Amino acid sequence: AADWAATASILTVHNLPFMGSGGGTALGEYGLQAAREPLLPEWARSLPLPLGMVHADWITTVSPAYAAEIQTAAYGCGLEAFLASRSARVRGILNGIDPAVWDPASDASLASDYDLHSLEKRRPNKAALQAALGLPVEPRIPLLAMVARLDVQKGVDLALEALTRLADSPWQFVLLGSGDPAIEDRARAFAELRNRHVRFVPAFDPGLARQIYAGADVVLAPSRYEPCGLVQLIAMRYGAVPLVRATGGLKDTVTPYAVGGKGTGFLFGPAEAPALADAIRGALGVYSDQRRWIGLQRRGMAQDFTWVRSARAYAELYLEAAAVRRTGWGGSP
Fold first, then answer.
1. Does the structure show a pLDDT above 80 at 1?
2. What does the alpha-carbon distance between residue 180 and residue 151 come to, in Å, rounded to a whole number?
3. Which residues, 6+ apart, have CB-to-CB distance to 57 below 8 Å?
4. What average pLDDT does range 45-56 have in this prediction?
5. How far is 162 from 267, CA to CA, in rounded Å?
6. Where would a tag sit more exposed on the chain, N or C end, judged by fewer CB atoms within 10 A?
7. Domain limits at 250?
8. Is residue 185 part of a domain?
């Protein structure tokens, strides 16, 4: 018992709304009590995630922005007062990707391998993707894409409505994902009405996802909230320019395009279709100038989102938490 008393505990929150269930039954079976934390709502005191957070010395999330957001009423799911009271012990550390797993220079799924210094070799991937999906093979038409779980969180409905507002602009769109049947039905109807330039693939298909990252010009991530997100990281690694909502890890990893060779993608604010449509319109404008567009691609591909940086941050936190426990400063939360 003494050994455990000196051991620090850290709990990582990935997606706060998913708090678990059935905690009350388990507590009763093991003779344990619900949380007594007064800042926790009554309904949360027997749920697994809030229980874990109450008893953890530190709480981490998968991005700095999400760590701040969950301490607000907009994103805190009713736990914001409790989380804000622990703000000194809430830390956001970005997720990462494995560059050996996600490597366009050696990806067997692709029609043509390429890297940061050979972007011209990326072009056959767009043509191959268009042909495989039955889209007109048009190298100059911007190809927009989403690879997403079809859930209200991911903002698929926002993307469909925004694209409806851009009917006067030339573009192609592919959506890969499965999930909520209502969203699937809406996406299917959207694609059927625009079958010359839209494709919806209702599936989980890792190989096709890689081909989309390598062939698309723009990858959309219009999430209503996003703890971290990997889509935008993979997109940049593969030379697809991310267009994301300014929330959570999306905001932390994509810097807004600006004239003068700055930025790695495009961001928009309100979770509303008009704002997304304006952002897409802006991206299409930059796409028309391939010199600027290639600069955007290269800046994205040059970003370091490997696990090395994340692992270093976690190691530093573990050492800090252990030192705090050892010295007794602050004690248990």
1. no
2. 6
3. 8, 9, 10, 89, 321, 324, 325, 332, 333
4. 95
5. 14
6. N
7. 119-304
8. yes
- Among candidate residues 6, 8, 87, 10, the one with its CA nearest the CA of residue 53: 10
- Over the stretch 275-293, which tens digit does the pLDDT of each residue have? 999 999 999 999 999 999 9
Tokens, residue 198: 């839209």
Tokens describing residue 28: 């009763």
Question: What pLDDT does 329 receive?
Answer: 56
Helices 206-215 and 123-133 sit at what angle, rounded to 10 degrees? 130
Considering the chain, what is the average pLDDT of its residues? Answer: 95
Q: Where are the beta strands (DSSP E) in 88-142?
A: 90-92
197 and 171 in a common domain: yes
pLDDT at 5: 77
As a whole number of angstroms, the longest Cα–Cα distance in the chain is 70
CATH code at 191? 3.40.50.2000
Query: Has residue 111 been placed in a domain?
Result: no
Position 22 scores a pLDDT of 80
The residues with which 262 forms a beta bridge, in sequence order, are: 258
DSSP string covering 89-104, please?
GEEE----B-TTTS-T
DSSP 34: P
The Cα 320–Cα 318 span in angstroms is: 5
Sequence-distant (6+) residues with CB within 8 A of 59 are 10, 11, 12, 13, 53, 83, 86, 89, 90, 91
Within 8 A by CB and 6+ apart from 70, the residues are: 13, 16, 61, 76, 77, 79, 80, 83, 90
For the chain, state the CA radius of gyration. Answer: 22
Cα–Cα distance measured from residue 175 to residue 146, given in angstroms and rounded to the nearest whole number: 5
3-class SS of residue 312: helix
Tally of structural domains, the chain? 2
332 pLDDT exceeds 50? no
